[in-house]
Design brief:
Layout: E1 8-9, E2 12-14, E3 17-20, H1 32-46, H2 48-59, H3 79-103, H4 109-146, H5 150-154, H6 156-162, H7 165-186, H8 192-211, H9 218-234, H10 236-241, H11 257-284, H12 292-297, H13 310-339, E4 346-347
Helix pairs in contact: 1-3, 1-13, 2-3, 4-7, 4-9, 4-13, 8-9, 9-13, 11-13
């Protein structure tokens, strides 16, 4: 994974153009174009936080939603105040972003870009630790349930509760996810190879138990699908950073450095970041949407004694959209820095810890 330990290099030559150091005809740091670019990128990413928080308040805590202030229905009790707070949640981050950019005029787009890359890396790292611990814990509980070993350990009452998805989620999965976020902050050595190896091991155990011991349970296949879905979706942001996504380069490879920068900047702004927002809004705009519906009901598979993690697989789309949005914003600012010919030290990608 990517750590935040980034060094600076004074100069780097690419195709005869200078990406760091002083350009001919440079735009001074703190120029309006740089400030506007930073505000735009930070706003597109920063609004995700109030969007997710408002989604939680509206559909999990039954708040009215900011749009209720403009509806025809009369709001009762404190609903009007809560609706106003939900609108304020969108305004305050924008004000903070503008003030933050104005107060840090000498921060380069390249440096801001690598901060976003580090944030994207943390999101993915926390998600990987989450699925690792939740997958193992839920599989262990499911195994004890199917073999009737859970009741002797925790009692009949808790066994019954653990057989309910709306209990296992808040009291088993969510604490583990919180712990994963803490672990991800301090441990940065997790790589995608680990998860791929775990998937292979889990599948191998299914083959051995089925054909050697004639033993197979639903939770075994659920674990493989749970981890495979996480690998497929969480690795996308890292693949974008490494420019390893499959694409047909008919013209791009022949472009100059500035031509590639224009392509990446416009593509990130017009295609990449809007796509991530479409995933979030289409999946979470209403209770019945594809992300909200499984999360609100703690949806599980129909396999009886399988794992209770199906609802979390819907949340994988949030992680995918959020990590990709942050990485597209990083791409956008990095490319804009090249086009604006900003001068100053640029973080050296060769010193990023993978």
């Amino acid at each position: 994974m990517i750590a935040t330990d980034i060094t600076a290099t004074d100069q780097q030559a690419v195709d005869g153009d200078q990406i760091s150091g002083v350009f001919a005809g440079e735009t001074p740091l703190g120029g309006r174009a740089v400030l506007f670019t930073r505000i735009l990128a930070l706003s597109l990413v920063g609004l995700v936080v109030p969007f997710l928080l408002n989604n939680y308040l509206k559909y999990w805590q039954d708040w009215p939603g900011g749009s209720a202030l403009f509806g025809s229905n009369d709001l009762e009790g404190g609903d009007g105040f809560r609706a106003f707070l939900q609108i304020l949640l969108y305004i305050l981050p924008l004000v903070y972003i503008v003030l933050r950019v104005i107060r840090t005029p000498h921060r380069t787009l390249q440096a801001e870009s690598w901060r976003f890359t580090a944030l994207s890396a943390y999101i993915v790292r926390a998600a990987f630790w989450s699925v690792l611990m939740v997958g193992l814990a839920d599989m262990f509980i499911s195994f004890l349930r199917v073999e009737s070993l859970l009741a002797p350990l925790v009692g009949d009452a808790l066994t019954t509760r653990l057989g309910q998805a709306n209990f296992r989620g808040p009291y088993v999965h969510f604490p583990l996810i919180g712990l994963a976020c803490i672990i991800a902050y301090f441990f940065r050595s997790l790589s995608f190879v680990w998860m791929a190896a775990l998937i292979v091991i889990a599948e191998f155990l299914i083959v051995i138990s089925r054909f050697v011991f004639s033993y197979e349970q639903a939770f075994m296949g659920d674990l493989v699908r749970f981890w495979y879905a996480s690998l497929f979706l969480f690795a996308s942001a890292y693949t974008l950073l490494e420019e390893a996504h499959v694409r047909v380069d008919i013209l791009y490879t022949r472009f100059s450095v500035r031509g590639k920068a224009w392509t990446n900047m416009v593509g990130s702004l017009v295609l990449g970041m809007p796509l991530c927002w479409v995933i979030l809004t289409r999946g979470m705009w209403d209770k019945a949407n594809v992300i909200n519906a499984p999360l609100l009901t703690f949806e599980v598979s129909q396999s009886g004694y399988g794992m209770f993690t199906k609802y979390l697989m819907a949340a994988f789309l949030i992680v995918y959209a959020l990590s990709m949005l942050v990485q597209f914003a990083s791409y956008f600012m990095s490319s804009a820095g090249i086009l604006l010919r900003e001068y100053g030290p640029t973080p050296d990608p060769n010193h990023i810890v993978i």
